[in-house]
Known about the structure:
Blueprint: H1 5-29, H2 36-47, H3 56-74, H4 82-93, H5 97-112, H6 119-206, H7 213-237, H8 245-254, E1 258-265, H9 272-292, E2 297-304, E3 308-315, H10 329-340, E4 344-349, E5 355-362
Parallel strand pairs: 1-2
Antiparallel strand pairs: 2-3, 3-5, 4-5
Helix pairs in contact: 1-2, 2-3, 3-4, 3-5, 4-5, 4-6, 5-6, 6-7, 8-9, 9-10
Amino acid sequence: MTWDQATRRRLADATLTVVVGALVMAAAAFDDGTTPADYALIAAGSLALAAYRRAPRGVLAVSTATTTAYVLHAHPGPLSALPVLGAVHTAARAAHRGVAALASAVFLAGFVATGPTTREIVEQTLLLMGWFLCALVTGLADRNWQAYLRQTEQRAMEAERTREEAALRRAGEERLRIARDLHDSLTHSISIVKLQAGVAVHLARKRGEEVPPALLAIQEAGGEAMRELRATLEVLRTDEPTGTPALLVERARAAGLAVELTVTGDERPLTATVDRAAYRIVQEALTNAARHAGPAKVNVQLAYDMDELKISVDDDGGADSSCPPTPGIGLTGMRERVTALGGTLRAAPRAEGGFSVRAELPLGIPEDVL
């Protein structure tokens, strides 16, 4: 059985209360003349310590009043100060230094008033003054230490966030540089090839000549290369999804691909990293199906579980399980995305024919991943 942090704190507070009360009551049992009323005052002052996290000043007032009343009535030894010492420490830890010092003075005044001023009383009072001073100092030191730890944690989180932002900015700048280089180096050349092929085809048809198949292939390949280059440049210029998996399915249908979308489980908003990965997985799987599956049917499934999102994209195309494909840039990028999120990916031909992409993405991924 495991306990959460709140349960452990309550158990620690209850243990503190029991230990302090037991010590003071054990000392009171050896004093002559201790009455049931004294035991009740001890119990009240000790039990109040259980609420020091929620109401440190209230605990300090109750412990000081009840313990001082017990001291004035029963004239016990210095051990009776334990409930007030604990309350003073917790009040100082909560930044209530003034009331903690006042409570210390009240209790010490009550302790001094328990009998005539003798050497023993003076020594015990000085000893208690040292105890109360230690309680105040340790409370303040604990508060300062906790504040230091919080500041250190905040600085570490800020530094990590800054590093992540710088890395993302550098990655974005690199993508833009690559996009510019690709545009400058390839777009012009491919455009010239496509234009020259188109002119040659036009002139051949104008003269009534038969257009060579190779020339038509060059013209078609040039157009296809331009479309793929534009798509690649769009991906490089922005890594953010431009829609949803449902929109991707609609676009694939409009392009002539037979696609069905099935969503199961409790559909809910996802973190940006998981949403981006799911979009890219479905996008890449549909793109591969459109390119390689031929006139196939494609089934896209999104299953929302409690702690993960399962994505399945299956087609009944001509892929053969005996001839697994060599992973290209698309499949490699897909696997890298899933692995970075701590998920699993399987992309391979199906035994019954066709190709299958199955990904499992853990939900609740922090925003600063990737």
